[in-house]
Amino acid sequence: MPQTLSQATPQPTEAFCATARLSYLQIGMGDRTVVLLHGWGASKEIWWSTLVTLAPIAHALAPDLPGHGGSPLYGSDRMAQIAIRIADFCDARGLETIALVGHSMGGNVALELTLARPALVRRLVLVDPAAHSTEMPIYAGSARVNNLQRWTALRTSVALAQKFGAVGRYVPHIHRGGFVLPALRRASFLAHHDVGALHLQLNSLFANPIGARLAGVRTPTLVISGEFDPLVPPALSRRVADAIPGARYATVRGAGHNPMDERPRAFEHILMDFLG
Questions:
Q1: What number is the average pLDDT over the span 186-190?
Q2: Domain presence at residue 4
């Protein structure tokens, strides 16, 4: 079972990997390593509660993906390019094997890395993965939306995040979940992302449907879906689990697209059970 969290519990620390040019959070000194990849427009801080829960059993690391937070884009707008940056990060840290957790776009990147470096990724967790990206709903900015509409929606979203993020920065990293306060907290980080990089990566995500390659994944895999996810509907996540040989599927009840933030205790219980 996940531990009971409090502000007195040791918290993650921030560092920067010069080799991969990635800012990251880290915690724990366990004998296994877990690397967590956030989704498009999110940040490494979305994993804060998960990192603290993993700390007693693992060395857990959560990087900002390129173009997000403290990690410069540095030409990495395609999913495979981001996967290379994550591989460089692991190599620079001397990580020979990892459990890899990828959320949304981070799930697409995690699949690219797993297919390219199967010896590195020994366990894979996909959380609401954007694998069938061309089939995501139109309001998610999918390929059915033209580039101008997507750019306009993105600029509007960042402008709103800048407005409401002033409130969100007061929401603590350790919280009880829900939808409103965690969303405000996430907005406080979105407000500081590279808008141009977000636009490039969103276009690249919809240009990289990876569903047809899922049968090539041979890593033990768990697919987790938020029960009410509006961006990657559970049916799409279920298809990912069905396509990966031997994959398990789990639902976080009452969660949307960000179960690690909206229902952290339930999410952590499922994750810890799979990681053993």
A1: 86
A2: no
In contact, 51 and 27? CB cutoff 8 Å: yes
Give the helix/strand (H/E) hosting 102. strand 98-103
* pLDDT exceeds cutoff 50 at 191: yes
Q: Which residue has the tokens 């559970």?
A: 234
- Dist. CA 233–CA 24, nearest whole Å: 29
**Cα–Cα distance for residue pair 203/177, rounded to 1 Å:** 30
Is the residue at 83 inside a domain?
Answer: yes
Query: Which residues lie closer than 8 Å to 268 by C-beta, 6 or more apart?
Result: 2, 49, 50, 53, 260
Distances (CA, A) of 241 to 98, 124, 236: 20, 11, 9
Total domains, the chain: 1
State whether residue 178 is helix, strand or coil. coil
Higher pLDDT pick, 1 / 130:
130
Q: pLDDT digit string (tens) for 13-39? A: 999 999 999 999 999 988 899 999 999
Structural domain range at position 142: 13-275
Cα(249)–Cα(183) distance, integer angstroms? 25
CATH code: domain of residue 127: 3.40.50.1820
Residue 265 in tokens: 């205790």
How buried is residue 8: exposed, middle or buried, by Cβ count under 10 Å (0-12/13-18/19+)?
A: exposed
**pLDDT bracket for residue 176 (50, 70, 90):** confident
pTM for this structure?
0.91
Q: Bridge partners of 240? A: none
Q: Within 10 A of 183 (CB to CB), how many other CB atoms are there?
A: 17
Evaluate if residue 119 carries a pLDDT over 90.
yes
- Domain contains 3: no
3-state DSSP assignment of residue 162: helix
Q: For residues 237 and 44, what is the distance between their CA atoms, to the nearest angstrom?
A: 22
Tokens of 223: 């697919």
Asked if residue 1 is part of any domain, the answer here is no
